[in-house]
UniProtKB/TrEMBL annotation:
Designated name of the protein: Response regulator
Lineage top rank: taxon: Bacteria
Lineage: Bacteria, Bacillati, Bacillota, Bacilli, Bacillales
Keyword Transcription carried by entry: yes
Positions where 4-aspartylphosphate occurs in the chain: 54
Amino acid sequence: MKYIVLDDEPIIRQGVIHKIRQTGLPLLFAGEADDGVSGLELVRSAKPDIVLTDIQMPEMNGLEFIRIAKTLYPRMEYIILSGFDDFEYAKKAIGYGVSHYLLKPVEDEELYESLNGLIERLQAESHRDKMVLKLQQQAETGQEAARSQTLTRLLNEEETNIADPLLDELSVGCVSFSSVVLQVEPVKLPHYSFAEDEEELIWFSLKNIVTEGFKAVGIAGLLVHSSLNRCEFVYVLGLKAGQDRSIVLSAAETVAYGVRKYLKINAVVGIGPFADKLDRIQEIYREAKQSARNAVLHGGNRVSHWTAQPPYKANRQSIIGIEDSKLLAEWLDRQDADQIIRWTKRRLGAIAQDPNSAFVQIEWFCVDLYLLFNKYLIANAVDAEWTIGELDDMLRWLQQITRLGEIEERMIGLASNVIGRLARSGDLSGKEVMEVVRAYIDHHFAEPLSLQSIGERFSIHPNYFSKRFKEKYGESFIEYLTSLRMKMAAKLLSDTDLKIHQIGERVGIEDAAYFGSVFRKCYGDTPKQYRERFHST
């Protein structure tokens, strides 16, 4: 908390400042002035929490200063320091809400008690304000979540008749309607300036970028954060008479750029067709979503808009044909990972390079290849789900892709897992490998472990392993690994004189700030506080 001192006598000002410093109270000196006029200027620039002021000063006395300052900053607290033991002064001061009227020369104990009382009051008010704000945010978040669920059901045709004042307002005030779908990559926290527990802050920032991007060019609309896919945002928009449709593309490009620049998150954007009635919103949304998917296929981090002619002819049977299946089976028999990887890259590249292709064809290819691997593994008595995971996981993952290269990496990883598992098919069952992996984590927790590295080492699917690990041990892989690391860190803090950053490195966390944050979350103290507390007992 900050304080300022007003008095026309420099010696008294310096004496008061010295006394306050001697109290040891958590107060920061923010400035001094010799009259009320200068004091008001100082208040505006320094914005102190507490003002200590004399009454008799040139230009403007202390009581007049308080009267004006109260109108500007109602929450600021005041202590009057006066050489006049005058009831009228005290009465007027009380009328302005001043609760502390101290006579000069000020006693140390009296000054301490007055300041300490104000600090406690300000802290209590601050705590109350934070709690009120938190409750308001929770209420707003709850209302927004409920509204997003309702609108998500509407967009996905699960409901067709809902009452929403913003939709009604859009319908009445606009003559042309469309939607823009923005899909962002899943964010792993901590992320740049966002801490581990700030996911909602990322979504809040992203929503601001989207809404401001469209409103800045006068495009009316409402934003829906999908309740089915947390990485999807839909801006349902309307254009008024005279507005050119080209401004939608310009605004969408500004939004995509802002998300990448300010949040460092990759995004693809799809614009749907325009309609003269809002009751076609479900159809518009479907086309916008398909446009976003096509943006992934033909170059990530871009905006794709709907075209009147579909870019492809759906031919579900042509993705992996009979001859392809035979060829893949032969390579699997020979455990020829190189051939399978080259074939996978070639087929994905062919789909991506065809200007008439669409993202749905990539989805078909991934699903067909998964099913082929699954069928082969089952036929060869191998735990298929342990090796390639569940199909639902793949489908959800495909809906969150923002970069084509991720698909190639995932499918090559899948093929490598299959070959690796076939090569060691006689080693362990899925259940047995869980114990082996846990023992491996126990001995290698200080190394840079991840679900991906575990999957590659043991030829198991990371997502499926993650699910089963939590089911078996009651905590996630990350929670288990973090617990091991923090227990060792606590032991090193108590038993050695190693520097804190060295301890972080020894338990596998090189970022000292992140190590401190994780340790405090686990033990309630910073590493330094934990060490001091341990050695003081």
